Amino acid sequence: MECCRPDHGYTHDSRAVRFLFEVLSSFDAEQQRLFLQFVTGSPRLPVGGFRSLNPPLTIVRKTFESTENPDDFLPSVMTCVNYLKLPDYSSIDIMREKLLIAAREGQQSFHLS
Questions:
Q1: Which one of 11, 23, 34, 94 is CB 3.0 to 4.6 Å from 89, fit for a cystine?
Q2: Residues 99-109, mean pLDDT to the nearest whole number
Q3: In angstroms, what CA-CA distances link 41 with 13, 16, 19, 52, 80?
Q4: Residue 112 has what pLDDT?
Q5: What is the phi/psi pair of residue 18, to 5°?
Q6: Over 90: is that where the pLDDT of 110 sits?
Q7: Are 57 and 84 in contact (CB under 8 A)?
Q8: Helix, strand, coil tally for the chain in percent (to 5)
Q9: H-type helices in 27-91, by residue range?
């Protein structure tokens, strides 16, 4: 967890940040590669792993209108700066599902978020 920079609503102690690292550690090698490609635009980490990402992986809270449910949304990214906009999902299972959907479906696409 020290290899990332939580910001804009998240800290290292935030439930969503803890969930994220639990989910990532449960992914198989292919799922990890897809996630990495989704977040950074590259299927491989630099020598030294996440600690060597430049800029570092930044995880921020994706915000919504007060009437919207974060569980209804996918995470989004800014790959040029390794920036993950992560909704505060209600459970680790929902986060896992949404991360996999975003990583699989978000390959080779570009959308404004």
A1: 94
A2: 84
A3: 27, 22, 22, 15, 8
A4: 47
A5: -65, -45
A6: no
A7: yes
A8: 40, 15, 45
A9: 29-40
Whole-angstrom Cα distance, residue 24 to residue 56? 17
pTM of the model: 0.88
> CB 69: neighbour CB atoms within 10 A?
10
Q: Catalytic pick from 80, 108, 109, 112? A: 80
**Beta bridge pairs of residue 86:** 61
Domain carrying residue 83: 4-105
Domain presence at residue 112: no
When the pLDDT of each residue in the chain is averaged and rounded to a whole number, the result is 91
Task: Give residue 51's pLDDT.
Answer: 86
The residue type of 22 is E
Is residue 46, in this structure, part of any structural domain at all? yes
3 is catalytic: no
Tell me if the bond preceding 55 is cis, omega within 30° of 0.
yes
Residue 113 lies in a domain: no
39's tokens: 């977040």
